[in-house]
Amino acid sequence: MNASPPTLNVLFLCTHNSARSILAEAVLNHIGGLRFRAFSAGSQPRENQQPNPLALKVLDAAGIATANVRSKSWDEFAQPDAPHMDLVITVCDNAAGEVCPFWPGQPATAHWGYADPSEAPGDEAARLEAFRLTLHAIRRRLDLLVSLPPERLERMALQASARGLAAS
């Protein structure tokens, strides 16, 4: 009898942890089943910052739960009692260039760059469309990630798999 593979913890990083990383966390927790558990954080979340209301709006419209998402510092995940991360993915170019904390266990890393939808020009409808397009782009990559066979998610192959998805 085969034991089910262990749950992989995935941390999505972005500077302010209010849009792209929040979208990625919510989507992966929605589609990842028992194979994945997602988290998100930022290098510089603003004091008392909440997720961008347009991010929450597009997630709600897509039927993805938002009750437990919140903006937080990546320092939470560098603590000794924090969940062990198997994969850390930066989703904005600023976070990709920053010096990240030391992650215990040396998780696999990848960069999946997305334009910041909160910087989209135009009225609220145009900005909401930018968030919707970003959500769909993130969802496409995450659908590919969760469909990978277990051997592609083993420690040595995980980094190559995640980095390869950046081109998709």
Total beta strand runs: 4
Largest sheet: 4 strands, parallel
**Poorly predicted ranges:** none
The percent of residues in helical segments reads: 25-40%
Strand order of the largest sheet: 2-1-3-4
Number of contiguous helices: 5
Overall geometric form = globular
Order of helix and strand elements from N to C terminus: EHEHEHEHH
Which radius of gyration do the C-alpha atoms yield? 15 Å
For the record, give the distance between the C-alpha atoms at the N and C termini, rounded to a whole number: 35 Å
Note the main attributes of this structure.
single chain, 168 residues, alpha/beta, 4-stranded parallel beta sheet, 4 strands
List the helices and strands and how they pair.
Blueprint: E1 8-14, H1 20-31, E2 36-42, H2 53-61, E3 87-90, H3 93-97, E4 108-111, H4 124-146, H5 155-165
Parallel strand pairs: 1-2, 1-3, 3-4
What does this structure look like?
- The chain is of the alpha/beta class and 168 residues long.
- 36% of the residues lie in helices and 13% in strands.
- The protein contains five helices and four strands.
- The longest helix is centred in the C-terminal third of the chain and has 23 residues, at 124-146.
- The radius of gyration is 15 Å and the shape is globular.
